[in-house]
Design goal:
Elements lengths: L1 E2 L2 E2 L6 H13 L5 H7 L7 E4 L14 E4 L1 H14 L7 E2 L6 E2 L1 H11 L1
Antiparallel strand pairs: 1-2, 3-4, 5-6
């Protein structure tokens, strides 16, 4: 589907619903950002497209992540402000290295 501003999303589609459930199982119902980046356990209730539909993302499970409401809101605000998709880089204060949270989340998935 398309709107005047670009593609829109059908959250009621069977593909999205099925893949959302699979992403929730993969994340064990936890916010992937809290677990991997912050080292804490928080319930994840929202399904986020890593690459938005407007930027060519799909409903594939590899493009879906489970986030708590706070982190979903933060990511969405960052994307709207910067006109880009994904998380901003963060500094690991122990090492001084700047890292991309999305890369760390995806790497943690491949280890489990």
């Amino acid at each position: 589907m398309w709107s005047k501003t670009g593609p829109t999303h059908n959250y009621a589609s069977s593909t999205y619903r099925r893949n959302r459930k699979a992403a929730m199982r993969r994340a064990k119902g936890l916010c992937e950002y809290c677990k991997v980046i912050e080292g804490r356990i928080t319930a994840g209730a929202e399904c986020d497209h890593i690459t938005s539909i407007a930027n060519g993302g799909t409903d594939d499970t590899d493009n879906l992540q489970i986030l708590c409401g706070e982190h979903h809101w933060q990511k969405t605000c960052f994307e709207k402000q910067k006109g880009q998709t994904g998380w901003p880089d963060v500094v690991d204060w122990d090492t001084g290295w700047s890292t991309n949270p999305q890369e760390r989340i995806l790497a943690a998935r491949s280890k489990s």
